[in-house]
Amino acid sequence: MAVSKLILNNFSLLQSLPDDLLENLGKQSNLVEVPRRKVVMEKNQTAHSLGLLVDGRLQGVDMTLDGREAGLYFIEPNDFFGELSVIDLQPATEFVISLTTSRFLMIPSITIRQLIEQSPQIATVINMRLARRLRESMQQRTLLTMPSPIQRVCAQLIQMTTGEQVVIYAPTHQEIAIMINTTRETVTRVFQKLQNSGIVAREGSSLHIKKLKHLTLLASGEKKEE
User: Is 5-136 a CATH 1.10.579.10 domain?
Assistant: First the structure.
Protein backbone atom coordinates (compact mmCIF):
# COMPACT_ATOMS: atom_id res chain seq x y z
CA MET A 1 0.00 0.00 0.00
CA ALA A 2 1.33 3.45 -0.95
CA VAL A 3 2.34 5.74 1.90
CA SER A 4 0.71 9.17 2.10
CA LYS A 5 2.78 12.18 1.10
CA LEU A 6 1.66 13.80 4.37
CA ILE A 7 3.39 11.07 6.38
CA LEU A 8 6.59 11.33 4.34
CA ASN A 9 6.64 15.11 4.71
CA ASN A 10 6.80 14.77 8.51
CA PHE A 11 10.41 13.54 8.25
CA SER A 12 13.11 16.18 8.18
CA LEU A 13 15.16 13.85 5.98
CA LEU A 14 12.61 14.18 3.17
CA GLN A 15 11.31 17.73 3.55
CA SER A 16 13.57 19.10 0.80
CA LEU A 17 11.93 16.87 -1.82
CA PRO A 18 9.35 18.33 -4.25
CA ASP A 19 5.80 16.97 -4.21
CA ASP A 20 6.20 14.81 -7.31
CA LEU A 21 9.20 13.00 -5.81
CA LEU A 22 7.36 12.52 -2.52
CA GLU A 23 4.40 11.03 -4.38
CA ASN A 24 6.71 8.60 -6.18
CA LEU A 25 8.55 7.79 -2.96
CA GLY A 26 5.25 7.01 -1.26
CA LYS A 27 4.52 4.37 -3.89
CA GLN A 28 7.81 2.64 -3.10
CA SER A 29 7.48 2.80 0.69
CA ASN A 30 5.85 0.38 3.11
CA LEU A 31 4.33 1.22 6.50
CA VAL A 32 5.09 -1.50 9.05
CA GLU A 33 3.67 -1.92 12.56
CA VAL A 34 5.40 -4.16 15.08
CA PRO A 35 4.71 -5.17 18.69
CA ARG A 36 7.01 -4.56 21.64
CA ARG A 37 10.31 -6.51 21.63
CA LYS A 38 10.16 -7.28 17.91
CA VAL A 39 13.50 -7.37 16.09
CA VAL A 40 13.14 -4.93 13.19
CA MET A 41 16.75 -5.07 11.93
CA GLU A 42 18.96 -8.15 12.22
CA LYS A 43 22.64 -8.03 13.02
CA ASN A 44 24.93 -9.44 10.30
CA GLN A 45 22.29 -9.02 7.61
CA THR A 46 22.45 -6.33 4.94
CA ALA A 47 19.60 -3.83 5.28
CA HIS A 48 17.60 -3.72 2.07
CA SER A 49 15.67 -0.66 3.21
CA LEU A 50 16.09 2.50 5.26
CA GLY A 51 13.72 2.62 8.22
CA LEU A 52 12.02 5.86 9.29
CA LEU A 53 10.24 5.76 12.65
CA VAL A 54 6.70 7.21 12.58
CA ASP A 55 5.80 6.55 16.22
CA GLY A 56 6.91 4.39 19.11
CA ARG A 57 10.51 3.83 20.16
CA LEU A 58 13.31 1.57 18.94
CA GLN A 59 16.72 0.73 20.35
CA GLY A 60 19.97 -0.41 18.77
CA VAL A 61 21.41 -3.29 20.80
CA ASP A 62 24.21 -5.81 20.64
CA MET A 63 24.91 -8.93 22.68
CA THR A 64 27.78 -9.32 25.13
CA LEU A 65 29.90 -12.47 25.25
CA ASP A 66 27.83 -13.75 28.18
CA GLY A 67 24.58 -13.30 26.23
CA ARG A 68 23.32 -10.06 27.80
CA GLU A 69 21.83 -7.20 25.84
CA ALA A 70 24.01 -4.10 25.55
CA GLY A 71 22.09 -0.97 24.58
CA LEU A 72 23.80 1.28 22.03
CA TYR A 73 21.34 4.05 21.15
CA PHE A 74 17.65 4.96 21.03
CA ILE A 75 15.63 5.79 17.92
CA GLU A 76 12.83 8.30 18.43
CA PRO A 77 10.00 9.36 16.07
CA ASN A 78 11.22 11.27 12.98
CA ASP A 79 14.60 9.52 13.20
CA PHE A 80 15.83 6.82 10.83
CA PHE A 81 17.90 3.64 11.09
CA GLY A 82 19.83 1.23 8.91
CA GLU A 83 21.59 4.06 7.08
CA LEU A 84 25.12 2.63 7.43
CA SER A 85 24.20 -0.68 5.82
CA VAL A 86 22.21 1.12 3.13
CA ILE A 87 25.20 3.27 2.20
CA ASP A 88 28.06 0.75 2.28
CA LEU A 89 26.00 -2.38 1.44
CA GLN A 90 27.61 -4.22 4.35
CA PRO A 91 25.78 -6.24 7.04
CA ALA A 92 24.32 -4.39 10.02
CA THR A 93 26.60 -4.29 13.07
CA GLU A 94 23.77 -4.42 15.64
CA PHE A 95 20.16 -5.41 16.15
CA VAL A 96 17.34 -2.87 16.25
CA ILE A 97 14.38 -3.85 18.45
CA SER A 98 11.07 -2.19 19.28
CA LEU A 99 10.69 -1.00 22.87
CA THR A 100 6.98 -0.27 22.39
CA THR A 101 4.42 -0.92 19.70
CA SER A 102 5.94 1.03 16.84
CA ARG A 103 5.26 2.04 13.26
CA PHE A 104 7.95 2.79 10.73
CA LEU A 105 8.40 3.26 7.00
CA MET A 106 10.69 1.07 4.94
CA ILE A 107 12.15 2.69 1.81
CA PRO A 108 14.25 0.52 -0.53
CA SER A 109 18.01 1.01 -0.30
CA ILE A 110 18.40 1.61 -4.02
CA THR A 111 15.86 4.44 -3.83
CA ILE A 112 17.69 6.08 -0.92
CA ARG A 113 21.03 5.85 -2.71
CA GLN A 114 19.48 7.50 -5.78
CA LEU A 115 18.10 10.30 -3.58
CA ILE A 116 21.54 10.81 -2.00
CA GLU A 117 23.04 11.26 -5.48
CA GLN A 118 20.28 13.65 -6.56
CA SER A 119 19.81 15.71 -3.39
CA PRO A 120 22.68 17.38 -1.50
CA GLN A 121 20.24 18.16 1.34
CA ILE A 122 19.43 14.48 1.90
CA ALA A 123 23.11 13.54 1.67
CA THR A 124 23.90 16.20 4.30
CA VAL A 125 21.20 14.99 6.71
CA ILE A 126 22.40 11.38 6.45
CA ASN A 127 26.05 12.38 6.84
CA MET A 128 25.18 14.43 9.93
CA ARG A 129 23.26 11.48 11.34
CA LEU A 130 26.23 9.17 10.79
CA ALA A 131 28.54 11.68 12.49
CA ARG A 132 26.17 12.07 15.44
CA ARG A 133 25.86 8.32 15.88
CA LEU A 134 29.66 7.97 15.84
CA ARG A 135 29.98 10.62 18.53
CA GLU A 136 27.22 8.95 20.57
CA SER A 137 29.11 5.66 20.30
CA MET A 138 32.31 7.29 21.54
CA GLN A 139 30.46 8.94 24.43
CA GLN A 140 28.87 5.61 25.35
CA ARG A 141 32.26 3.88 25.50
CA THR A 142 33.54 6.64 27.79
CA LEU A 143 30.42 6.36 29.96
CA LEU A 144 30.94 2.62 30.45
CA THR A 145 34.38 3.25 31.97
CA MET A 146 32.86 5.24 34.86
CA PRO A 147 33.35 3.31 38.10
CA SER A 148 29.97 3.70 39.81
CA PRO A 149 26.39 3.07 38.61
CA ILE A 150 25.20 6.51 39.79
CA GLN A 151 27.87 8.18 37.64
CA ARG A 152 26.77 6.14 34.63
CA VAL A 153 23.06 6.83 35.19
CA CYS A 154 23.67 10.58 35.57
CA ALA A 155 25.93 10.71 32.50
CA GLN A 156 23.34 8.79 30.45
CA LEU A 157 20.61 11.23 31.44
CA ILE A 158 22.78 14.21 30.53
CA GLN A 159 23.43 12.71 27.08
CA MET A 160 19.69 12.33 26.52
CA THR A 161 18.69 15.78 27.78
CA THR A 162 17.34 18.39 25.36
CA GLY A 163 18.05 22.13 25.58
CA GLU A 164 15.14 22.54 28.01
CA GLN A 165 16.74 20.03 30.40
CA VAL A 166 14.06 17.47 29.60
CA VAL A 167 14.40 13.83 28.60
CA ILE A 168 11.40 13.46 26.30
CA TYR A 169 9.80 9.99 26.41
CA ALA A 170 12.09 8.95 29.23
CA PRO A 171 13.30 5.35 28.90
CA THR A 172 12.40 2.70 31.43
CA HIS A 173 14.83 1.66 34.13
CA GLN A 174 15.46 -1.60 32.25
CA GLU A 175 16.26 0.27 29.03
CA ILE A 176 18.75 2.46 30.86
CA ALA A 177 20.23 -0.58 32.62
CA ILE A 178 21.22 -2.27 29.37
CA MET A 179 22.73 1.01 28.13
CA ILE A 180 25.06 1.32 31.13
CA ASN A 181 25.76 -2.34 31.87
CA THR A 182 24.04 -2.71 35.22
CA THR A 183 20.80 -4.14 36.65
CA ARG A 184 17.33 -2.64 36.58
CA GLU A 185 17.22 -2.76 40.39
CA THR A 186 20.40 -0.67 40.59
CA VAL A 187 18.97 1.94 38.20
CA THR A 188 15.76 2.07 40.25
CA ARG A 189 17.71 2.74 43.45
CA VAL A 190 19.67 5.53 41.76
CA PHE A 191 16.47 7.13 40.47
CA GLN A 192 14.89 7.01 43.91
CA LYS A 193 17.86 8.94 45.31
CA LEU A 194 17.80 11.47 42.46
CA GLN A 195 14.06 12.06 42.84
CA ASN A 196 14.20 12.24 46.64
CA SER A 197 16.94 14.87 46.32
CA GLY A 198 14.86 16.89 43.86
CA ILE A 199 17.48 16.49 41.11
CA VAL A 200 15.04 14.93 38.65
CA ALA A 201 11.25 14.73 38.47
CA ARG A 202 9.06 12.62 36.24
CA GLU A 203 6.16 14.43 34.57
CA GLY A 204 4.06 12.09 32.46
CA SER A 205 6.31 10.36 29.95
CA SER A 206 9.07 12.96 30.32
CA LEU A 207 11.86 13.33 32.86
CA HIS A 208 12.74 16.87 33.93
CA ILE A 209 16.23 17.69 35.13
CA LYS A 210 15.72 20.14 37.99
CA LYS A 211 19.36 20.45 39.08
CA LEU A 212 21.55 19.97 36.03
CA LYS A 213 24.71 21.22 37.77
CA HIS A 214 24.18 18.76 40.61
CA LEU A 215 23.60 15.94 38.11
CA THR A 216 26.79 16.91 36.25
CA LEU A 217 28.84 16.86 39.46
CA LEU A 218 27.50 13.39 40.31
CA ALA A 219 28.33 12.16 36.79
CA SER A 220 31.91 13.47 37.02
CA GLY A 221 32.43 12.00 40.49
CA GLU A 222 33.13 15.44 41.96
CA LYS A 223 30.12 15.05 44.23
CA LYS A 224 29.32 11.79 45.98
CA GLU A 225 25.80 10.45 46.39
CA GLU A 226 24.12 11.30 49.64
Answer: no
